[in-house]
Every structure is written in C-alpha cells, then in structure tokens.
Amino acid sequence: MEIVTQYHPHMDIQPIATVRSDFEGRFGTPRxxxxxxxxxxxxxxxxxxxxxDALRGLADSSHCWLIFGFHANxxxxxxxxxxxxxxxxxxxxxxxxxxxxxxxxxxxLSLVRLAGVLDPPGRGLAxxxxxxxxxxxxxxxxxxxxxxxxxxxxxxxxxxxTASPQLGVRWSDAAQAALTAAPAHLGPLIEQTLAADPxxxxxxxxxxxxxxxxxxxxxxxxxxxxxxxxxxxxxxxAAPRPGC
Length: 244
Description:
Layout: E1 17-21, E2 40-45, E3 63-69, E4 81-82, E5 93-94, E6 107-117, E7 124-128, E8 137-143, H1 146-149, E9 168-171, H2 173-178, H3 186-195, E10 209-214, E11 217-223, E12 227-235
Parallel strand pairs: 9-12
Antiparallel strand pairs: 1-2, 1-8, 2-7, 3-6, 3-8, 4-5, 6-7, 10-11, 11-12
C-alpha cells in the first residue's frame, strides 16, 4: 500500500512568552539546564496566551520543558557538524546528535525547575536552573513526565552523558565587598556559573580576563587551569530583575 505524506514547507509559529532571566548575554549563559541551580527567571506569557486556564494543573509539576528560540544567533547559519564544548572542542558530531544552538530552525529545548505560577494568575511562571538568556522567545511549554521521559536504559552520545569537570572559584577582596550591595543570590549565581566553565574550549590555557553580564552586573574574572578568580563586580543596570 502506498503511503502518502503531506509536506508543509512552512509552519507559522509565534512566541507565546518571553523569558526574563539573570543571564543578560550569550557568554556566561549555561550550555545546559540545571548547571546553575540558583539561576532565576520568569516566563512572561503574551496575550492571548496569558489566560489563567492555560496553566491549570501545571503547578503540580516539579519541572517543565521550554521550547524556545536561539534569538541571539539569528545571524548564524546552521552547520551539519559542530564541536561540542563538552568534548573539548576537538571532536565533531552531527548537529542532530548535539544541543548546539546553530540548528536548521534555531529551536532549543530546556528542562527547568518550576518554582511557581506568577501572580496575577496567567502572568506566567517562575523557574530555576534555566539555560536561557534574557529576552528569549518561548514557543511552547510542556510538563515533564519522569515515568516516560527518564527511561532506565536511556543513554546519550559518547562523551555527552557525563558532567564536565568544574572549576574552583575564588574571590578578590574587592569583588567580595561588592556583593554586600548586590542582590542576595548574585554570589551563588556567579559561583555556579563559573564552576560550569563558560569559556570556549580553545581558551582553556588560562590567564585570560573575561567579562559577563549577570543580574544587572558586569562580572570580571580570570581563568586558571583549574580555577576562576572573580576580580571585580560593577552594577550596570538598575532595572528590576526576577525576584520570585
């Protein structure tokens, strides 16, 4: 029997929400969800999707999936093979065997911890541990179903199923003092972000100074072989951030 499939060359989708995140730039944003548990974000629903009924029952979940767009990579084309940072940047895998942001349709998938539903009802969600930057468009939200989505015999592509080594984190006196005037969770946010080592693989020789935007602050740090040292923290944005 001949099977006929109907092909739709285009599908119009629109963002249903926008993320308000602690991470304000691509550099420093975690490469995977859960690497920075103290990272806070809000998923702010757009009309008409901010109907409270659309979130009915989701508060019972511990986690949810976000399907989002890599909006900061709009000027980059997709690549059939990529060099995953997890593999040290020395080995190529097919793009469909990785979570690379350089994809044919620029869609990302993130499993985030659900911290609650925002008030007023229908406004959106409070989430933790997300790997998405501020301003990210969200195209769909789905509940996490552990009995179905965490099979006991599951496995990942070689080299991608284990955690990467973490950096130790030290603070200069000036950086430590700057935390006294910063939001309370900025310190843990910086430590967890640096421990996950956001550097490109080809920068791992150490000694270079880096800067990244977190929670309305410019954070400067120097990387060594096995540790990162925070040297200064400067506030750059007085706008309110997620505080849920």
